[in-house]
Amino acid sequence: MLILLVEDDPSQLEPLRTALLKVGHTVDAIEDGETAQWFAFRKDYDLLILDWMLPKVSGVEICRVYRRAGKLAPVLMLTAKDTVLDKVTGLDAGADDYLVKPVDVLELLARVRALGRRSPMWQGDILSLDDLELHLSNLTIERGSLTTQLSSREFQLMEYLMRHPRQVLSHDQIEQAIWSWGDEPESNAVTTLVRRLRQRLQTVDAKDWIETVHRMGYRLNPPN
Q1: d(CA 189, CA 172)
Q2: What is the pLDDT, as a whole number, of residue 181?
């Protein structure tokens, strides 16, 4: 998933960012609320992880404004505030879940998995579209009796395409979804990655699922 992670303490931000990256997520890690709010409205995130107390704009205010704008991505709040009233305030602002500091990394990853799989396309650790299945546990893709292994980057692209079937996705959208803020992919990185993924899909008889839309980008077109 493409995740916005906001935490003003670098000693806490970096371990959480590293843990999320290790399990295959793309993470934009931000240290202040004002910058985080700017990012939240300019990228199509799958999940927001917001510290409650942030410089300039609080996490709960970011959540409140985000929901008022009609944004639907799940929001996980991180906070030292653990009273019932504080939890109610966060949930009323639009948060989906709540994790009290100090954050246990394994619990955080479990909450992230749970929030990320609220889509009806997910069944446990499997993302399905028609007769194609993407397996998170071992980074494989299956169709009928055929299966192939994906690299982590190929997996991220396939997940992004499957989450947005039949939508034309530009090079910029794909870069934002797969490469974290601050990364500088080469100019032909998306084209190269799409070519590699098509080669993988060919082994499960699904090469033609990815359509090139001239001068616009790419679209995942399942046969049904």
Answers
A1: 11
A2: 67
Q: Three-state DSSP class for 70? A: coil
Closest CA to 32 of 12, 11, 5: 5
Residue 126 has pLDDT above 60, yes or no: yes
Which pLDDT band holds residue 182 (cuts at 50, 70, 90)?
low
With the CA atoms of 48, 30, 21 and 74 taken in that order, what torsion angle do they form, in degrees rounded to the nearest 10? 0
Is residue 170's pLDDT more than 80? yes
In Å, the largest CA–CA distance within the chain is: 54
> pTM of the prediction?
0.65
* Nearest alpha carbon to residue 33 among 57, 12, 13, 10: 57
Q: How buried is residue 191: exposed, middle or buried, by Cβ count under 10 Å (0-12/13-18/19+)?
A: middle
Cα dist. 156→29, 33, 134, 179 in Å? Answer: 18, 27, 10, 10
